[in-house]
Every structure is written in C-alpha cells, then in structure tokens.
Amino acid sequence: MKMQSRAEKTVFSCALEGDAEGLQYLIDEESPDMLRETDDVGRSVLAAACMLDRSGFARELVVKHRADVNAHTARGYSPLHCSAMWGQLDTLKTLLELGADPQAVTFRSERAIDLARRYSRWDCVDYLAWAEAKQSLQASINEVRDILAAPERVQGKLSKEDKNICLNTCSAKSDWIQNVKNPTIQDLEEQKKQLEDVLSPILAKLKAQGEFVIIRRTTFDGSGAC
User: Fold this and answer.
1) How far apart are CA 213 and CA 191, in angstroms?
2) Which of 18, 123, 162, 223 could cysteine-pair with 54, CB 3.0–4.6 Å?
3) Where are the domains of the chain?
4) pLDDT tens-digit series, residues 115-159
5) CATH assignment of 129-208, given 1.20.1270.10, 2.60.40.3080, 3.60.15.10, 1.10.10.60?
C-alpha cells in the first residue's frame, strides 16, 4: 500500500499491525486529525484495518477514537465494503454491530453483499443476508412507531384500540429480536410477516385517508439476493 506522508505511513503501519497502543501514542503526541488521513485511493485507516481483519483495532477506532464507521471513498467504498470484498467475516460482524450500513452502495450501486457475492466470499454473503433480514424487521417496527408518534398522522384516523394493537405488536417483536438467540433468516422473515399480517389492515386505514404508508415485504436468501 503506497503511503503519501510520514504521518500517514505511521498511522497505517499501526493498522497493518493492529497496534492500538501505538495509534494512541501517535494521537497523543501529534493530533487526532491523523485518523482523517487516507491512502492513495482514498481509504481510511479504518478501511485498511478492515481489509486486514483487525477487528479489535477497528472497534478501538470507532468506539474510542470516533472513527466514522460509514466513511467512504470518492467511489463509495466503505469499511464494510472492504471487509466484504476481502472476506473478513469477524471484522464485518464488528462493523455491523457498530452501526455500519449494509445498504450503502458504491459508484457501481453495489452493496457489501453484492461485492461479497462477486468475490465468492460466501460466509460474508450468508451473514450479510442475515443482517439485512434483521435490519428489515427492525426498520418495519421503527416505521410503525414513527407513524404512531406523530399525532397529526393518526389522530381521528386510528382508534385507541388500533394504536394499542400496533404498539403492543411492535413491542413484542422488539422483545423477540432482543431475546431470541441466533435466529435464522427464515425466523426473521416469519416475524416480519406476522408483523405485517397484524398491522397492515390497521395501517391501510391511514392510506385510505390519504396517509402514505408502506411496510415492505422483502425476502432474503442465502445467496444474498433480495
């Protein structure tokens, strides 16, 4: 990897070695702005660490040094894209845990899962498909809660019973996400279908009165297609 300056080379050397203590020393001695340095194709220190599967170092960068987990190059490549391309599953999991966006796209409109498929990183494909299914369920829950939190959208359109059904169903699905260990993609899809089956007739009342509401039906498969 070609470096552009002595400071950048030192920072990237820390990423290469997974040297969190060395990075902290450099930040203390010089400047936190060093973390904004990029290599000759615009990749950040975090992206470099992810390509090398330095998951602990990546976590340190995001949690302690507030590196942007969704920072991207001019062509749209984020740390998650880099992990997926290089097949670095542990770091990919860490990034998703820390809030990386699996829907972010490159200049070719490719998500991380698309790149993992292109480079035959099948373990990453499977995990990203699972993560997208989980994200889709959570997004549907959040969408309904946002609607109910806006009085102007529901007042006079939904009954108290309707609102309680929506809130209780969302709470039950949130609890399920929090408490069920290692759900499969099929489990997540089934939970979303149950959510839709209960709430769609109620939310249809809003649509009938001019409120535009969509709960997306999405199916994920092990190939990463959706």
Assistant:
1) 19
2) 18
3) 6-120, 129-208
4) 999 999 999 999 999 999 999 999 999 999 999 998 888 888 899
5) 1.20.1270.10
- Please provide the size of the chain in residues: 226
- What would the two tokens of residue 151 be? 């009085």
Choices 3.80.10.10, 3.30.70.920, 1.25.40.20, 3.40.50.2300: CATH for 6-120: 1.25.40.20
| Sign of the dihedral through C-alpha 115, 119, 120, 121 | negative
pTM: 0.77
CA 50 to chain centre: 15
Tokens of 130: 């699972």
Closest CA to 162 of 119, 87, 92, 213: 213
- In sequence order, the 6+-apart residues with CB closer than 8 A to the CB of 218 are 133, 136, 192, 226
